[in-house]
């Protein structure tokens, strides 16, 4: 599966209890459409994880436009108020940098880590 969007904050690296490092970041995916002649925009936020290496985290900064390849999963949970909730997580296998938030014409593919 492929998704494209902008990072809403700088990526972070955390270490699991099994001493594995995971790079985490959140993506905003915008969709523009027309409804009854009116332009509308809808934003979906997706939590992303990249387990292959933590060396890419410094490049994954707020506003960066990226294209990701991987698979999606849902994570159900219960809020403090007892309400059932869910969030989306995209398990990233490959990341392509499409450009910075200031419209830089940068386009590069980060190395695949297997």
UniProtKB/TrEMBL annotation:
<dbReference type="InterPro" id="IPR012340">
    <property type="entry name" value="NA-bd_OB-fold"/>
</dbReference>
<dbReference type="InterPro" id="IPR011344">
    <property type="entry name" value="ssDNA-bd"/>
</dbReference>
<dbReference type="Pfam" id="PF00436">
    <property type="entry name" value="SSB"/>
</dbReference>
<keyword id="KW-0238">DNA-binding</keyword>
<dbReference type="GO" id="GO:0003697">
    <property type="term" value="F:single-stranded DNA binding"/>
</dbReference>
<dbReference type="InterPro" id="IPR000424">
    <property type="entry name" value="Primosome_PriB/ssb"/>
</dbReference>
<dbReference type="GO" id="GO:0006260">
    <property type="term" value="P:DNA replication"/>
</dbReference>
<protein>
    <recommendedName>
        <fullName>Single-stranded DNA-binding protein</fullName>
    </recommendedName>
</protein>
């Amino acid at each position: 599966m492929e998704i494209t969007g902008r990072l809403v904050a700088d990526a972070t690296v955390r270490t699991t209890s099994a001493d594995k490092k995971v790079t985490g970041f959140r993506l905003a995916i915008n969709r523009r459409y027309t409804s009854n002649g009116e332009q509308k925009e809808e934003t979906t936020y997706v939590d992303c994880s990249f387990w292959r290496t933590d060396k890419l985290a410094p490049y994954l900064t707020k506003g960066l436009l990226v294209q990701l390849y991987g698979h999606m999963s849902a994570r159900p949970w219960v809020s403090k108020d007892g309400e059932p909730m869910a969030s989306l997580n995209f398990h990233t296998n490959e990341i392509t940098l499409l450009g910075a938030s200031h419209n830089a014409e940068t386009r590069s593919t980060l190395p695949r880590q297997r």
